[in-house]
Amino acid sequence: MQQTPFSGRGLAPCCRARPQQCPVQQRNAVQRSIHPWQPCVPSQIRSQAVRASGASSNALPQPAAAPAAANHVALQQHQPKQRCVAMHSTAVMSSATSYTKLSKGKAEPLGPSKQGNAVNFAVFSQAATAMSLVLHNPSDGSKQEIPMNKSGDVWHVAVEGLPSSNVYYALRVSGDGGWETGYRWDKTRLLLDPRAPLVAGRRTWGQREEREEFQTKKGSMWWGTFDFNAKFDWGRDYERPQHKLRDLIIYEMSVRCFTASKSSGLSQDKRGTYLGVAEKASYLASLGITAVELLPVFEYDELELQRWPNPRDHMVNVWGYSHMSFMAPMSRFGTPGCGPVQAARELKEMVRTLHNAGIQVILDVVYNHTAELDDKSPYLLSMRGIDNATYYMVDPSQFVQLLNLSGCGNTVNANHPVVKQLIIDSLVCYVEEFHIDGFRFDLASCLCRDSKGHPMTTPPLIRDIAKHPVLSKVHLIAEPWDLGMYQVRRDRVWQVP
Q1: 184: phi > 0 → left, psi -120 to 50 → alpha, else beta; which?
Q2: pLDDT tens, 247-266?
Q3: Which residues, listed in sequence order, are joined to residue 120 by a DSSP beta bridge?
Q4: Could you report the per-residue pLDDT of 301-345, keeping only the tens digit for each?
Q5: What φ, ψ does residue 441 adopt, rounded to 5°?
Q6: pLDDT tens digit string along 390-435?
Q7: Does 140 score more than 50 pLDDT?
Q8: Preceding omega of 109 cis (within 30 degrees of 0)
Q9: Catalytic site includes residue 293
Q10: Are 391 and 413 in contact (CB under 8 A)?
Q11: Are the CB atoms for 421 and 365 separated by under 8 Å?
């Protein structure tokens, strides 16, 4: 299948979706929620703070009785082949903080994985001096903290007796050195695992909930979760459409905006959702559309601009160019109140429906920066507090240490081996698990720089994507610029030597 070296959107005919009541006039487009839905599941969770207080905070909690055994899907143990385990179940977690035994665990694969009767948690942090796994039971707000072990640059622990789904977890990370080192340690803040397959938090679009434990400036609390139980049936006669890139007629749209208006003719529970897009498959096909390009569908916080007083604090981020995770699908594009497990399933249902209509699905992916912003208005969510100098481009010799080649406060250190593998695993996950047909890389020139922001002739990330047995076969479209580099017609960057 043909690749497009550093091409813009214009190479294939493109019909841009302009839905009513969704005037988007800037790159990180924002607007108020059109339909403030009520959650399907009321939030009655009381937050309970977990405080780090020296050695006592790392004491092992007493094991509880083992929950009933659950079926599981074994993950591959080889890190580069790690699969995104967005399997599906709607069961409510009864005792996610209950377990029967702790063991040292393994350093591979990174993220949560099922290993025998245990769930293994493994997280990379070269510079951290301590890391704890925090388990959370949303039914009663309880939390339990478990110290992790270190092998090389990976922290890990195995927990037996946990359910195979709907376990909420986060990380507490400590390290040495202050601002001058380029690291941003904060042991009071619970952090999201960069490889969490799913993200749990707010369940209803644009509405704060008690479960978020929101704090002004600091923002909301988000939990990693997973589901090793159920499988998705793509259908006996299902086939992926096979369109060449040069033949595509691409309709670019926001999942939220496309059907959020009453003019969509959909029931309220489908407006602005994956299932809402699926309902319009026949309409899109009637236009002659052969592919949809979806604005970002990775998990993001649509209320991020309302964390602190600022000129845009009345707005809601609709377009979503501000990820907190490269692995987890946006849960609030699911049926209102359904949660991350069901939302991931509905994303697959949307893809299946579009494919059955002969329409391919391309994702707009943002690997150049994250929602953690800058040092002026930081949103400490995940990578910033786990290993800032690994995941981001940082120059401690400057007063403004975070390189801002994205124009969004930070720049992901995409060619660091660990970060590069995270991005590749994210892409492979969406091709293999969600059957995505291609990707449009936002500000792709950021992905062609080294850790200090210098342009690279043969960026390792781009080279590995071009050579990858899975990714080399899907559509690859690049936005060929960032705030310091313009790379139109730099074909050789994407070519395989």
Answers
A1: beta
A2: 999 999 999 999 999 999 99
A3: 113, 158
A4: 999 999 999 999 999 999 999 999 999 999 999 999 999 999 999
A5: -90, 115
A6: 999 999 999 999 999 999 999 999 999 999 999 999 999 999 999 9
A7: yes
A8: yes
A9: no
A10: yes
A11: no
Task: Return all residues near 176 (Cβ < 8 A) that are at least 6 apart.
Answer: 127, 129, 185
442 is catalytic: yes
Q: What is the DSSP string of 343-377?
A: HHHHHHHHHHHHHHTT-EEEEEE--S--TT--SSS
Cβ atoms of residues 388 and 184 within 8 Å: yes
Task: Copy the structure tokens of residue 348.
Answer: 């697959």
Contacts by residues 212-218 (CB-CB < 8 Å, ≥ 24 positions apart):
213/47, 216/307, 216/308, 217/307, 217/308, 217/377, 218/189, 218/307, 218/380
Token digits of residue 399? 């007063």
How far apart (Å, rounded) are the C-alpha atoms in residues 17 and 26? 15
CB contact at 8 A, 360 and 438: yes
Quickly count: other Cβ atoms within 10 Å of residue 439's Cβ: 23
Residue 376: count other Cβ atoms within 10 Å of its Cβ: 8
* Active-site entry in 209, 279, 372, 479: 479
Q: Tell me how far apart the alpha carbons of residues 275 and 333 are, in angstroms, rounded to a whole number.
A: 9
Catalytic residue, chosen from 442, 464, 482, 491, is 442
Handedness of CA 458, 462, 467, 473 (dihedral sign): negative
DSSP assigned state of 169: E
